[in-house]
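CORE FACILITY INTAKE
Project code: CF-77B
Contact: R.S. (postdoc)
Sample description: multi-component assembly, two entities in total
Requested service: structural model of the whole complex
Turnaround: standard
Below are the sequence entries exactly as provided by the requester. Do not edit them.
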Amino acid sequence: MLGTVSRHVAALRPGVSRGFSTGPALGYQARLSQYYHNTLRDDLMILQYVPPQVRARQEVMEEARLKAIKENVGGTPPNPLRKRLKVRPPKPRVAESAAHNTPYVDKVTVHIRCREALQNKHNLLSALMTLQVVTGQRAEVIKAKNDAAPWKLRKGMPIGAKVELTGDRMYEFLDKLVEVVLPRMKEYSGLRMDSGDGMGSFTLGFDNSAIGLFPEMEMVYDMFPMVFGFAVNIKTTAGHNPAGRLLLSGLNMPFVHARKPATESFML
Amino acid sequence: MFTRTAALRRVQRVAVRGFSTSNVAYESSVRAGVLLQRDPIVTQPAGKFEEATDRYFDWLQFISADRFPRDFFFKKGSTAESKWMDQEDIRAGEWFFDAASKPIVKSVKRVIHEDDMIEKSETSKPIAINSRETEADATGNEQSLERKLDRTLYLVVKGAQGEWTLPQGKVNDEELLHEAARRNLKEMCGGKMSVWMVGNGPVGHSKSGEASTFYIKGHILAGQAKANEELASEFKWITREEVEKTVSAEYWLAVKDMLSTI
């Protein structure tokens, strides 16, 4: 068996008839994955390091803050008409940054919510094919979990499509998104600085003009009867938003401040 | 006269003098250096095992893949469809990982030559891939930043005594460590490098006599080093193994844990 392999492999490489392979370029490991493991991870560990004295000081300040809230230090007497102020629950202590727990990108989910599927479920086919073309992976159908009478939705109706990417496919998709698609988008400067759910997930939403910017869609765009907007959810192992943003910014994701700059608001 | 407050005041004054920063012994005890690295430019090459694994998984993917929805992408009976079917015949004949699982090819339209494989379309030229070995590799020019594209290169400089070390220098009064590191790098190796320093804290240290040098990591993004004749006679961009051969044994023990093996 091995004899036959060597004879043919010497003459042909898989994927030669197309001039490309469906696996990552060079076959071995996605470029972004190599970049993360060989270069970025070390930098993240260094940037997130908090020296023990600073960490101790932070804890002391946090305790003092909570104590001050509890005892209402320096505050005016509480207004009986106003509801009692909620004390935020103490933030769970984020594990100290070390080589074994630097944040990484765990999973990327691309999904399309297809309202047109309510009238005719064959409209979902475009959504499924779009995701398959763009991610290189077979898409799953999302079925409704609850009824919603205003939209004539019943439980179990196919209502969307999603793809969950992990490993090399995930890195390649992220690479494409950040290097090719986002720069081509009009009026997109970056992810907002107040984005993130606090548990390491970041979501980007795109409208239907963005799907045509993917390199794979250039050749087959006309074949799709319907184009959809989609959402990309990036799940990281970061414990809080700043760490997640640091990781994404290391993967070349642009960020912009949430608020408009002061000069704009003063322009006449 | 000798009240308790007056005595305290005298003690305080003595204490203040004791922590004065003009003490000469403090000046040279802390030094700041830079671990400047050029990151890998090309991806890591796959070893024989990785290549074999990849070929196997490519084959698995091929035989277990969903049927290509030909009727979705091509109109039945169109020329595009027949062109695609021709290509599929050729493609199906490529997978010889397991001779028993070779799919039955409908008809071999033409003899397979490697030159014919990549279709040359009228509008686009085939992409020419650069070589992974550059001329700096061929000549062994250790000053070039284009040598060993798949490895991390570190900047080492030859000091006044002829010893090879990472760029470093003194920390002045009223100066922070990362500011001193940047300044020392600029003085020793010229200001024509675009450098991004990773944070403000050190990643390692080395001792020489009384002095401790703390190194802050940086990446060179653009430009090239230029040795300042007074401080450094030469510079080199070298990989971890080459650093081990170049620096002294004692210095290697101090810095080796900062250097990447890739």
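Facility notes:
- Residues 1-20 of chain A have pLDDT under 50 and may be disordered.
- Strands of chain A lie at 105-113, 140-143, 158-165, 191-192, 201-206, 230-236, 255-256.
Invoice: internal transfer
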